[in-house]
Amino acid sequence: MSNTELPIKNNKLTVKAITYSWYYNPLALKEIEIPVVPNTIVKPTELLVKVHATSINPVDCIFKGFSYGFINPKNKIIGGDFSGVVVKAGPETNFKVGDKIYGDVLTFTGRGSSSEYILFEPSKAIICEKIPEGIKFEEAASLPIVSGTAYQCLKSYGGDLTGKNVLVLGAGTSVGTYSVQLAKKYFGAKNVVATCSSKSAEKTKKNGADIVVDYTKNSKINELLEFVKVNGKFDIVVDTVRDESVFDYFNALLKPVSENGILTQVKGSYTIDYSNLKLSQFLPSLKKLTNSINFKLGRSPYFVTDILLESNKGYGDAINKLWTEGKLNISMDSIKNAYTDYQEAYDRVASGKASGKVVMKFVQ
Ligand SMILES: NC(=O)c1ccc[n+]([C@@H]2O[C@H](COP(=O)([O-])OP(=O)(O)OC[C@H]3O[C@@H](n4cnc5c(N)ncnc54)[C@H](OP(=O)(O)O)[C@@H]3O)[C@@H](O)[C@H]2O)c1
Known about the structure:
Residues 27-360 form the Enoyl reductase (ER) domain. 26% of the residues lie in helices and 25% in strands.
């Protein structure tokens, strides 16, 4: 794309973006200006990407839910996940014009992804990968944060997961969906036990779970104990929903740290409802704090760690491998028009009722 084809005036790119300001205001589609470098448009380390699709994640609800308009920039752009096409590539990046890419550019600066174009440094993005051949833009935009977090949870296991027992708490969430798939089909776990509601049970089995346990039923812990009796304790628990009922049964369910046992808890809220946020939703529980202190004092052998998504070596290859082997189930709740249905997309995610990612398409 030549510079004259881009909407640039006075070294500023004018684009439409989905923005937020005060926590109580709805999202708004606004024109924003992105300063660019004269002539080259991008710095040597930057990419300019024409965005095709973005997706909304609970973390976007956190950013908006705790935003106060006097913190600059006043109009922040919602979202981190994106897919699109590189239109300008700095020579120091590993990309070229025309590359189809996906990733996540979430930052505290308010320069999110839900904009017609994004300008960013790929080396500083949490995720920036080429889209595997055959994955559509809307599918690619639904992947980064949730599958990246799932990969990071499983990578936290201090060894080879082949032949191990994995428990995924909250397998109906998007992070849970990819935790089940990656554990079973990429990391080679022997048994994947997954908790979800009956609504998500079929999807979870298709994703590779050997046993599905309904978390809404009182029998949940007994079913997990039954599994352990026959198959041995879990090597890793991936907790996507802060379901801390298992803390009371660590002895019976989880291997101690001396045998590499670990519980990875995805940092987030106690309730998956992000529509009316309160700080208290994010505080650690007494149960967790007690275990953490006891662990440090050598009184508890059960290791619990918080997971906050960061850049992870090997993530892109894992997704590529699963996709090319025909084993990746991409989980999307709905695809919305970014220009008209952005509030609906946001509300659907905030409600905690979405089954898979909610994607917004900029290029129809
Ligand atoms: N720390 C990080 O870097 C990071 C990154 C990504 C996500 N997260 C956090 O991880 C959590 C999941 O995010 P997500 O995007 O994967 O969520 P999501 O896709 O929006 O999850 C929606 C699903 O959650 C399930 N669910 C609702 N209430 C539940 C409960 N009480 N117990 C178990 N499952 C329940 C429902 O499936 P069922 O049919 O099974 O009920 C629903 O379909 C959020 O808290 C998010 O903030 C953190």
